[in-house]
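Dig into what follows:
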Amino acid sequence: MEYLFDAWPYISTRLAFRHGNRTSRSSQLPTPGTLLVLSDFDGTLAPIVPVPDYACLPPDTRDILQQLASREGYLLGIVSGRALADLKSRVAIDGLIYAGNYGLEMEGPWGNLVHPEAQAFRHTVETLHEHLKHRLNGIEHVVIEFKALSLSVHYRLTSPADHGRIKREIFGALKESQACKSMLVSPGKMVWELIPAVRWDKGNAIDYLLCKTPLIHGPVLPIFLGDDKCDEAGFAAVRRYDGISIFVGNIHEAQSMACYYLNGTNDVAEFLRRLLVFPEKDRLT
C-alpha cells in the first residue's frame, strides 16, 4: 500500500477527471463523471471509542461532509455495520446514501432496500440475542449490540482473561439457539460480528450501488475508505471498478488489499478537506 498523500499528484489527477475505467498513470483521461465517496463510520470517519454508544462524528468532519454532499459532481455514502437507523442518527446529513448492517439495509436516491433473505433471519437474531444475554451475563464490560438483522459483541473494556470465555460463550449460544448454520461469525477490532449467512457483505452492497448510481448520475469514480476486516470486501469491489481503495489505520498491524492507506480519522478529515478545496476549474461542470 502507498500512503495516499504521497500519491496525491496522481490521485488529484484522477479526481479532477473523475475516471474509473483505466489503471495506468500514463493513460488518456476520459470524460468526467460523478465522484462516489463511500466510507465506513467507526474507526474511519469517527474515532474508535470504548463503548459503541459513545461514537460521535467529529464536528469538522460533519461540516466537510455536509459541504461535499451539496456539491455537484459528488455523491457520498456511509457503509457500516451499524443498524441503519443508528447510523443515520449519528451522521444526520441529508442527501447521503446510508448502508447499515453491512449493506443488508440501504437507503439512497432510488429508495430503500432490505435484503429479503436477511429479513427472514430476524427471529433467529432475536433468539440468539436472548441466549447471548444469558451466557455473557456476569462478564464485566461486555456489550451486546442488537441491530435487528445482526448482532455485535464488543469486548474492548473486558479483562483479557475473559476473552477466551467470551468466544466460547458466543459459539455455545449459536449451538444452543440452533443458529450455527444460519449465522456467520466474524472477528473485528475487539468485536465479534454475528451476521445472517446470506451472500451479502459490504462488497455486494458497493457492487449494488455501483450498478444503481450510473443510472442516476452518469459515469462514476468510486472511492471507499475503511479500517477493519469487514471492509476488505468493499476494497475488492472498488478495485474491480478501478476505483480508489483506502485503508485507514496502522498498516504494520493489518494486511489489506486496499491500494492506499491513511493513518487515522484525522487523515480522513484532511482527505475530505482536499476534496472540498479542489480547484473550481477541476470540478464537474
